[in-house]
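Here is one chain, start to finish.
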Amino acid sequence: MTDRNLVAAETLRVAVSDGDTGFVQVLTKRLDRLGWEHVVLTGAVPVERLVSMRLGAFVVDLALLGQHAWTYLERVTTELPSLPLVVCTGQSTVAQRVRGLRLGADDWVTKPCHPEELIARVEAVSRRRRLAEAPAATEALLAGEIEIRPDQFQAFARGRSIDLTRREFELIQLLAAAGGRVLEREEIYQRVWGYTMAHGDRSVDVFVRKLRSKLQQTSPEWTYIHTHFGVGYRFAAERVGAEPGVADGAATGTGVGAGPPARVPQVGERASDDEPAPLRALA
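Its structure:
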């Protein structure tokens, strides 16, 4: 098999809990060639350690875990429901496979198997999770003076492009697509960074601060990202100095290609009768 056949659609950070040294050796060599980060575990590790690893996927051989395999599987899938998990183990019965899948495993691979099949299944599970959690990419989102265009991977303020990094764009898209709902830091981290947030990680706060600064520079008459202390963040456009809820609104969607969005009146300018009033922020 050539390297060309080994090109993956994305890179992941994977933990492999497996005691079959021969299989693991072949598997990790292929992961190295794909550029995936990986760690090999030789037994059950505390869920807290899995969190700290910032994993994109977890591959586990239940045979390695002995009599506590089902309990451990249930705990991992319950406490880390957004972590893609693939069971890769020896011969099993239909009842065992059904039990594992119903406990929360995303896929089940029976050994002996080719490492490429396992890698492809991990990719597929991760891809489905990502697509299921991603905001709809077919609509432009409008709020205040901001227009977010997922089809162009860009955001605009008064028609001018805002200089955002990929992570910053994913963050503003996620917040704006929530329709005024408060998103917890852990949910933001999982959906933007792709893995579970470790205790004490402040990445979300740091990126929100950077994003706020850029929005303030390009749209100084409006505020967009609101902090709910101890919980997370909410996206809603509010004019600076206006009473909350008087002239504000959560982001609204318009179909891409459905025509230009309604123009936002400038400060001090009265909106014409045919211009829709801004939506109020959702509670």
